[in-house]
Amino acid sequence: MPTVAAFAAPSSSDPLLRTTIERRETGPHDVLIAIRYAGICHSDIHLVRGDWGPVTYPQVVGHEIAGEVVEVGSEVTDFAVGDRVGVGCMVNSCRECENCLAGMENYCLKGNTQTYGSIDRDGTVTQGGYSTHVVVDKDFVLRIPEGIPYESVAPLLCAGITTYSPLAHWKVGPGSKVAVVGMGGLGHLAVKIAAAMGAEVTVLSQSLSKQEDGKRFGATHYFATSDESTFDTLANTFDLIVNTVSAPLKLDSYLRLLRLDGTMVNVGAPPEPLPLRVFTLFGNRRSFAGSSIGSIAETQEMLDFCAEHGIVPETELIGVDEVNDAYERVLRSDVRYRFVIDIETLRD
Ligand code: NAP
Ligand code: ZN
Ligand code: ZN
C-alpha cells in the first residue's frame, strides 16, 4: 500500500501534526490524485475536536480537494493523467437505495461514505485531503472547469455546493429576497451565488466589520445581528434565509424575518439541539429546513455555474504548518473567507 505524507489530528485537543498514512492501491474504478490544494472547512474543526461524536485518531480531515490525476484504474475512461479534478465531502455511497437511484447520493439512506471519518468498504477509516495523494472512485471525482484559478477552487467542493444546493432547490432567482446568516466560508459563497442567481441578498453578520466585502460579493443590504433593531427592521421580509452559522442561534428571532411561505434552511452544524416555538412557524406559514452538501451531478453543475458567472472563492493560501493557527482564527470568525492549504508545503 502506498504511504503518503499527511497532516493529522492525533487527538481532540492536541495540535495537528505531520505524519504519514496509507492509501489503497489504485483499483480498476479508481483515480489516484496528487493533491495541490485543500480548503479548511469549519466541519474539519468540528470533527477533529469531537464536537459531533467519537473519532478514531489519528484522523486526517479536509474535504475541499483540488489536484491532478496521476494514475487511472484499468476501467476508467472518463479521466486521464493530468486532468484537473476535485473531490468534495463524499467518496462513495450504497448506489442502490431510493435516494442513490434518484441521483441524490448525498442523501444515501445507508449514509454516504464521507471523505474523512467514515468506514470505507475495506473497513478502514477514510482519511481526508490534508495529504499529498488520495485514491477515489471515479464516480465521486469532479472536473474543475477552465477559468477558475487552481489555488482558489477547492472551497467550492464543500462550501460552494452546500450553499448552491439549497439556493437552487428553493428556486432562488430574480425577485427572490435571500438572507445569508454568517459571512464566513459558506456564507461568502452563498452571497456570491445567490447574487449571481439574480436574488436581492442581505447579509446578517454579528457586526458591520465586513460590510464592504459583503457588498463587493453582491449583497445589497448588510445588517448586524448584535443590533436588536435589525430584527424589527427586517420582520416578514425574506423568501429564504440560509443559516451558515457554526454555533446555536435563537431561531425564533430569525424565523420572524420570513415572509409568507418563506423558508429558513440550516446548513450550519452546531452539535447542540436548537429549540424553536412552533407558533413562530404558524405565522406566515413558515418552514424550517436543513440541507446537506449536494449530489455529484449537482456539484458539477455548481462548478460549471461558478465558472460561467466568474464566481471565485476569496481565499488565504497558507502552508501546512500554519493550519493550527488558522483553526483558531476560524473559531474567532477571523477568516477572509477560506483558508486553503498549499499542499506543496507538505511535500517539503
Ligand atoms: P466559518 O467560516 O467559521 O463561518 C461561520 C460564520 O458564522 C462565521 O464567519 C461568523 O460569521 C458566524 N458565526 C460564528 N460563530 C457565531 C456565533 N457564536 N454567533 C453568531 N454567528 C457566528 O464556517 P463554515 O466553514 O462556513 O461552516 C459553517 C457551518 O456549516 C459549520 O457548522 C459547518 O460544520 C457547517 N457545514 C455544513 C454543511 C452541510 O452540508 N450542511 C457543509 C459544510 C459545512 P460573521 O462573522 O459574519 O458573523
Ligand atoms: Zn465542509
Ligand atoms: Zn444509497
UniProtKB/TrEMBL annotation:
InterPro entries (UniProt xref): ADH-like_C (IPR013149), ADH-like_N (IPR013154), ADH_Zn_CS (IPR002328), CAD-like (IPR047109), ER (IPR020843), GroES-like_sf (IPR011032), NAD(P)-bd_dom_sf (IPR036291)
Q: Which CDD domains match?
A: CAD1
Broadest EC class?
oxidoreductase
Molecular function, one GO term: zinc ion binding
Name under which the protein is recorded? alcohol dehydrogenase (NADP(+))
Which cofactor does the UniProt annotation name? Zn(2+)
User: Which segments of the protein form a coiled coil according to its record?
Assistant: none
Concerning SMART domains, the annotation shows: PKS_ER
What does the record give as the reaction this protein catalyses?
a primary alcohol + NADP(+) = an aldehyde + NADPH + H(+)
Q: What are the residue boundaries of the Enoyl reductase (ER) domain, all occurrences included?
A: 11-341
| UniProt keyword Translocase, yes or no | no
Species whose genome carries this gene: Microbacterium oleivorans
EC number(s) for this protein? 1.1.1.2
Q: Which UniProt keywords apply?
A: Metal-binding, Oxidoreductase, Zinc
Q: What family classification does the UniProt entry report for this protein?
A: Belongs to the zinc-containing alcohol dehydrogenase family.
